[in-house]
Amino acid sequence: MPTSSQDCSTDLVTTILDGPRPGTATTRVDKKNVLITGPASFTVVNNASNGAAVGTMTADANAARVFSITAGNAQGVFTINASSGAITVLSNTNLGIAGTIHRLTVRYSLTNDTAFDETVAVVTVT
After folding, report:
1. pLDDT for the residue 29
2. Spatial distance between the Cα atoms of 17 and 96, rounded to a whole number of angstroms
């Protein structure tokens, strides 16, 4: 499944305090892109209990990042651990019968949400 990444680069502005010509210098700093690396397809049994493990999203190892489900979970069936990416059943009431497919938009973002990556995690009920 394709993923996208956003430019996480920034300008670092420093002030030169000593030397013959004090002034301000700007240096381009490239941060690692935010990138979900997978997997994005899981199965869960139709009689799964609340708290049952569904699967774990993985992403690059940059610090200060969080996972969240931003769409596809209107009935609150699933939850995702913000730091580990582990998806579990939150409320099995609307899990559905075998063959039901849930498409969850999972976001992996900087803690201030200025740069992020999103992918669709497909959860099929068996």
Report:
1. 42
2. 65
Is the predicted pLDDT of residue 102 greater than 90, yes or no?
A: yes
The CA distance from 44 to 7, in Å, is: 35
From residue 24, alpha-carbon distances to 20, 91, 99 in Å are 13, 55, 61
- Return the exposure string of 21-51: e unless at least 16 CB atoms fall within 10 Å of the residue's CB, then b: eeeeeeeeeeeebbbbeeebebebeeebeee
Q: How far is CA 85 from CA 55, 75, 98, in A?
A: 8, 20, 24
What is the tens place of the pLDDT at every residue in 33-82?
556 666 689 999 999 999 999 999 887 765 567 889 999 999 999 999 99
Evaluate whether 79 touches 53 at the Cβ level (below 8 Å): no
- Looking at per-residue pLDDT, the higher value among 119 and 23 belongs to 119
- Cα(84)–Cα(25) distance, integer angstroms: 38
**Of 108, 100, 105, 106, which Cα lies nearest the Cα of 126?**
100
